[in-house]
């Protein structure tokens, strides 16, 4: 051992090997080193560090965003691609438990029950059909005010607005005779001025005013729009005057003749059929005027025609101007 002092007065101790003599030291040959070997070692270490960093980054990307070569959609932490929950690094993995869930299907009707329920249907729209599985019995509950139950109930008789029986299946036709007076046969709507020309030598000259150039006829129609026949006949009362004097029916005044009739020269209408019955549901009423040739033009004959029965009362004024 040799102790020496350096420039800073620090003591240095040199330890010599045991087999070396202090008196005759033999300098050891220094191990030759080169700069090229040291440089290569540093390069290998740097490359190894780079590989570790890249591998760590790749692993981090796969763990956080899924497979970087596939879908770029990030999966929630702790969930695999299949949607199953996986254990995190900081939590223990839970054991997978297979649960065998058994579901009981709903009870189904037996064939006999289904058949019995179908047999309860009585094809009657006026009943509510039910089947009691406990008793095995059918129940047919009636529906109130149902058209088709063979009972004439309230609201099933005549509808006064439509003149039709609401439920003819349960109630017999109940709409009574409904008469209207109009210009045309089988016309439902009445006309206030319902007379028009029915022959030649007649020309309408206004409302119920006619120009007569020869023997002429005007007429109107009484229509029945009820469901029942008009049993009471309609009769007519017609009055005509010329220069303030009355012209008797089926007679003449200064050669002017007036005649009225129903249908084929009848005095009354007779029974008028219902609208839904076979045959005509109307009656015609006519007034015939005969014009003498010796009367001057411009003579005015004024008439009032009254049609009446227990079902109707209709009065209209007419004017015949001889031309």
What level of helicity do the residues show?
10-25%
Q: Remind me, CATH topology of one domain?
A: Immunoglobulin-like
* Overall outline: elongated
**CATH C-level category of one domain:** Mainly Beta
Computed Rg: 62 Å
Order of helices and strands: EEHHEEEEEEEEEEEEEEEE
What's the total count of β strands? Answer: 18
Helices, by number, come to 2
N- to C-terminal separation?
A: 177 Å
* CATH architecture identity of one domain: Sandwich
The major pleated sheet works out as: 6 strands, antiparallel
Indicate the multimeric state: single chain
> Structural class, please?
alpha+beta
User: Which range does the strand content fall in?
Assistant: 25-35%
Low-confidence stretches: 1-5, 7-35, 68-73
Instruction: Give me the CATH superfamily of one domain.
Output: Immunoglobulins
Estimate the mean pLDDT confidence.
Answer: 78
Overview of the molecule:
The protein is elongated, with a radius of gyration of 62 Å. It has a domain at 179-322: Immunoglobulin-like. It has helices at residues 35-65, 111-119; strands at residues 2-5, 11-14, 127-132, 137-142, 158-159, 164-165, 179-182, 196-197, 202-206, 209-212, 216-224, 235-242, 245-247, 251-253, 256-262, 282-290, 300-308, 313-322. Strand 3 (127-132) and strand 4 (137-142) form a beta hairpin. With 323 residues, the chain is α+β, with helices and mostly antiparallel strands.
List keywords for this structure.
323 residues; alpha+beta; disordered N terminus; single chain; Immunoglobulin-like; elongated; six-stranded mixed β-sheet; 30% strand; six-stranded antiparallel β-sheet
